[in-house]
Amino acid sequence: MVNSKLVGEEVTCPHCGKGVKLVQAEQKEPDGSSYTADYSMLVASGNQDSVCVMSARCPSCKKPIVQLLHGKMGDVIFTTFRYVFPLGSSRFVPPEVTGSVREDFIEANAVLTISEKASAALSRRCLQTILIEKGGVKPSDDLSKQIDAVLPILPKYIADDLDAIRNIGNFAAHPIKNKNTGQIEVVEPGEAEWNLDVLEELFDFYYVKPAQSQAKRQALDAKLQAAGKPPMKRP
Q1: What count of other Cβ atoms lies within 10 Å of the Cβ of residue 140?
Q2: Taking 50 as the threshold, does the pLDDT of residue 4 lie above it?
Q3: Domain ranges of the chain
Q4: pLDDT higher for 116 or 37?
């Protein structure tokens, strides 16, 4: 067996998005009894290199999480791994994010460890869709101009990170990324991962926070109505 830190780690569950410590999954016997499953299984080994399947369960949503790991037999922790269920990595997509934006982000995340070029192309397309649908930018503009258009209205920390997409992606050397965002193109080190990081920040700003604010206003309106008072005034 191979030691691992998946069970007991503090992670964001890729299913429900809650911060949890993963636990070992229970297995059922044919007679209905249950037992705690070993969460780490060596599946292949050779020349001191090993591949291991590791599973755990989220204590909140009860769904399983499975990783495929690679390392040397003597390692205590396998640092090279890939999520195989759910496919991709442990990034959580808020339920407020729907449609093509959600689909592109999930795919960009799923293929990140397989093809950074494909992931970056999907995430750039996802970014452009957000800027058009939520940022109100001109669809006819290229991505660089669309980024410029939203920078003044974003919180500084998001604006700085979004602006860095052009520099990390080296748009000057690879202008096709700017004009045809879905095109497969060479990526710079860390570019694909950075794109996903910034998209998560934009999800929170454009989708999650407005939905939370609306829910709070609706709850307050319900309380006002119950008290026989008029609802909140809207700007």
Answers
A1: 7
A2: no
A3: 10-87, 99-211
A4: 116
Q: How far apart are CA 7 and CA 93, in angstroms?
A: 22
Q: Which two tokens stand for residue 76?
A: 């205590």
- How, if at all, do strands 49-57 and 64-72 pair? antiparallel
Distance between CA atoms of residues 107 and 133, nearest Å: 20
Which residues lie below 8 Å from residue 30, measured CB to CB, with a gap of 6+?
none
160-184 CB burial, b ≥16 within 10 A, e <16: ebbeebbebbebeeeeebbeebeee
CA 154, CA 116: separation in Å to the nearest integer? 27
pTM value?
0.69
The residues pairing with 53 across neighbouring beta strands, listed in sequence order, are: 41, 68
Q: How far apart are the first and last CA of the chain?
A: 62
Q: Which strands sit side by side in the sheet containing 87-88, from one edge to the other? A: 40-46, 49-57, 64-72, 80-85, 87-88
More confident residue, 218 or 30: 218
CB count, 10 Å around CB of 64?
A: 15
| Two structure tokens written together for 163 | 């602006």
The alpha carbon torsion through 14, 121, 179, 153 (nearest 10 deg) reads 10
Question: Is the separation of the CB atoms in 214 and 96 below 8 Å?
Answer: no
Q: Would you say 13 and 20 are in contact if contact means Cβ atoms under 8 Å apart?
A: yes
